[in-house]
Amino acid sequence: MPSRRPARLMAPLALVAAAVAVVLVVQSSKSGSKGASSPASATSQSTSTRTAGRSSPTLSSRPPRRSYTVKAGDTLSGIAQATGVSLSRIEALNPHVDAGALRTGQKLKLAP
């Protein structure tokens, strides 16, 4: 059996190290965003208490979307995140859809 070159062993190790680095960066950004949103939410709560008599348009005042047209590069999880509809709900409403074979222009139900 021929001897293995060090480069053949370093490539998989570099790949694992890169994957670990990505996971650590994502986790730290998620934990950092939680702390940043708490003071803002406290401020918005106190502001909403003071302005309870006035109504202002919010994102929740828009009617929910009933369908979504798939764009190039879309994934079901990305669509779920962008629309605010859970992945399991999208899958339940679209049992004929193969998550690995989404087509551009394909219509997905988001609400019954």
Set down the secondary structure blueprint.
Blueprint lengths: L5 H45 L16 E3 L6 H8 L3 H7 L13 E3 L3
Antiparallel strand pairs: 1-2
Please sum up the structure shown.
The chain has 112 residues and is mainly alpha-helical. It has 2 domains: 7-49; 64-109, Membrane-bound Lytic Murein Transglycosylase D, Chain A. The chain has helices at 6-50, 76-83, 87-93; strands at residues 67-69, 107-109.
Q: How would you spell out the order of helices and strands?
A: HEHHE
The Cα radius of gyration reads 22 Å
The count of strands amounts to: 2
Q: How far apart are the first and last residues' alpha carbons, in Å?
A: 62 Å
The chain-level mean pLDDT equals 75
Provide the domain count.
2
Unreliable stretches, pLDDT < 50, 5 or more residues? 36-49
How much beta, percentage-wise? 5-15%
Please write the CATH class name of the largest domain: Alpha Beta
Structural class: mainly alpha
**What spatial order of strands do you see in the largest sheet?**
1-2
Helix content: 40-55%
How many DSSP helices? 3
What CATH calls the topology of the largest domain is Membrane-bound Lytic Murein Transglycosylase D, Chain A
- Sheet bearing the most strands, described? 2 strands, antiparallel
